[in-house]
């Protein structure tokens, strides 16, 4: 062992962030990159709503409007929501299961950089001849060369690269949760957020390959003259719809399940009660994940699949309301009789419950095929999915950020600013999207860049645009809050919320090895069990010893950069550039295989120096 | 902490002796689950488009049983030889393992050569990626599999060469094991390609 007890090369500043394989730092990278894309997607939303504020405006015009709606959807789903979810999963899941790191730290870094370069590639389209403009669903034939611009190539290649990153991230978390749990941390003792991350990772694993294939087919059609979606040469456009939604529907559960997990943690902690119906919560999470794969064609009721298929997919969709209802009642019953506190995290969690329920209800309405023929492609659909994705997922992410911020950064967020953040965002959200239900029922189609006066659409659109300002103010307040907290010199305590789970048993932020000694888990809500037994902290499963850590590496960054370069080569039909990019990527893979990383060890005396009691 | 005892006696089932090894094998099984969806999507696309020849040659006119049967024989045999290699791994017989892995690679190269010949032959007959939906679907599905075989060959060679220097250890053993899992997987995919693409294509008749 002594031969390998070498120390990590000390990298600092930017080199440290480019090479890190520490899940806590990768979580912060995901949060920053996802946050920047969130701001970009938010700016796009603001422009969309300004264009629709009054009838027949020409704020951005039709072409730019198409680009804005496409990029808003694509950015928010793939480049903002997914990474912020991965940020929290990275920062928290290993801590919640008592692990020192994820199963594949190198792959973890690679997943981040692939997502990052994929996202950058898509967004460079704004400066290189126009953004993708066929909607975030990019349906063929609209997305083929004949009908759409160069931007779709950025969509196809950027999402392919980012999707690869997400896929390997999902595998990493599955293996981490299966293999890396601390002694005593059985599956049915795992915190709900870890369970949700587990099921979400499973969905990623089985859903993302479908979009990979869809994007490959679209790429071959656009770049190499294949005929998958070209009806003139025997192609079939419905294949794209199927592949997209076989991925796309599980994707919405990939997004919402982690939010369910966050809400479960937050509601339970701030009610000072064990989560009501823990096993039914786990069961409901798994069932939603399973049913999520059975319902993709409810996005295609009007495609012409026939009454039998429509009925079955409609019924399967309605079935999902059952496990979701179980969850909602469990949260309510967790609060029932609890000692409820309302810091910002819990405000967002409690705001989430009714908002998400409204989104779920309109979802069941949309699941009825004959009714869907009326709602299809109208603002009713826009209102529905923003209620579940913003009112559900984004509220959940805000709750999670306020809750875990001290654990991630070692500083508390300001509660006064937080409350302003919540109320402006919450009221702004409902102002924006509640009227859109009625706009849709009155016949306003989605994805139109303007509308005529005198059709009863003015008031709803005007209120909707006003609401966006509320959400904008809320978002700015959050940024101000993050800045104020970074500038403050007050350190967060290890356990600011009187927490129940393992992450609150270690310092904020945790040392690079997380747990000086692996904890012994003796029940659900592992830390709470010890608190109730009158113990000061966790019982340990091992004596203090030397800790093996992986070395940082530039390879994940360079490997992703290679694919980024190759992506441009494909788009501009320059196969020398493709070759260079591929050589970089495969060369890095080869180096990774040939050169073993012995890692380094942190010895017990160093652990004690850092102020962790042995 | 005993994760890097390179010089110690090799434990039984060295591929699963360390947590890193166990993680690798589990992660790879999961990856193969994702690959199954990938090929499932490609198969579904192919089945939907296989009759859309767009005036080009049909599968009955194209496919040649002896050639495909030979390719199948080579690939199935290579799966067997990779099993022999893993058996040798479990007996900690590095020489025998390397020998069987080399046979696997040679058989894989034979398969790949036949496939390249086959594709060139088809292109000559007017069956191309751009000739119609059937062509696009055929080359994408079978080509994806071929690319997997090519990658597998390079991968196994990389592992073989580094093991010459590093020897059989708890670090290199999982690499062999995982590469052989991969090799079995592309073999299983070929069984489906042989059935769905070639046999069903030669017998003719529409599906459904």
From TrEMBL, chain A:
Which SUPFAM superfamilies does this chain map to?
Cytochrome c oxidase subunit I-like (SSF81442)
- EC annotation? 7.1.1.9
Extract the Pfam families matched here: COX1
Which compartment or compartments is the protein found in?
Answer: Cell membrane
Q: Which residues form the Cytochrome oxidase subunit I profile domain?
A: 17-522
**Reactions this protein catalyses:** 4 Fe(II)-[cytochrome c] + O2 + 8 H(+)(in) = 4 Fe(III)-[cytochrome c] + 2 H2O + 4 H(+)(out)
Q: What is its main location?
A: membrane
> What family does the database annotate?
Belongs to the heme-copper respiratory oxidase family.
According to its UniProt entry, the function of this protein is described as: Cytochrome c oxidase is the component of the respiratory chain that catalyzes the reduction of oxygen to water. Subunits 1-3 form the functional core of the enzyme complex. CO I is the catalytic subunit of the enzyme. Electrons originating in cytochrome c are transferred via the copper A center of subunit 2 and heme A of subunit 1 to the bimetallic center formed by heme A3 and copper B.
Entry protein name: Cytochrome c oxidase subunit 1
Please spell out the taxonomic lineage of the organism that makes this protein.
Answer: Bacteria, Bacillati, Bacillota, Bacilli, Bacillales
From TrEMBL, chain B:
Cite a single GO BP annotation: aerobic electron transport chain
Q: Does the keyword Chloroplast apply?
A: no
Spell out the Pfam families in the cross-references: COX3
Question: The Heme-copper oxidase subunit III family profile domain covers which part of the protein?
Answer: 26-202
Q: Which superkingdom, per the lineage?
A: Bacteria
Q: What is its main location?
A: membrane
Q: Which InterPro entries match?
A: Cyt_c/ubiquinol_Oxase_su3 (IPR024791), Cyt_c_oxidase-like_su3 (IPR000298), Cyt_c_oxidase_su3-like_sf (IPR035973), Cyt_c_oxidase_su3_a-hlx (IPR013833)
Q: One GO CC annotation, please?
A: plasma membrane
Q: Where does the record say this protein resides?
A: Cell membrane
Q: Which residues cross the membrane?
A: 26-47, 67-87, 99-117, 137-161, 181-203
Q: How does it sit in the membrane?
A: Multi-pass membrane protein
Q: Does the keyword Transmembrane apply?
A: yes
Q: Which UniProt keywords apply?
A: Cell membrane, Membrane, Transmembrane, Transmembrane helix
Q: Which GO terms describe its molecular function?
A: cytochrome-c oxidase activity
Q: Which PANTHER family match?
A: CYTOCHROME C OXIDASE SUBUNIT 3, CYTOCHROME C OXIDASE SUBUNIT III
Similarity comment:
Belongs to the cytochrome c oxidase subunit 3 family.
The protein, known as: Cytochrome c oxidase subunit III
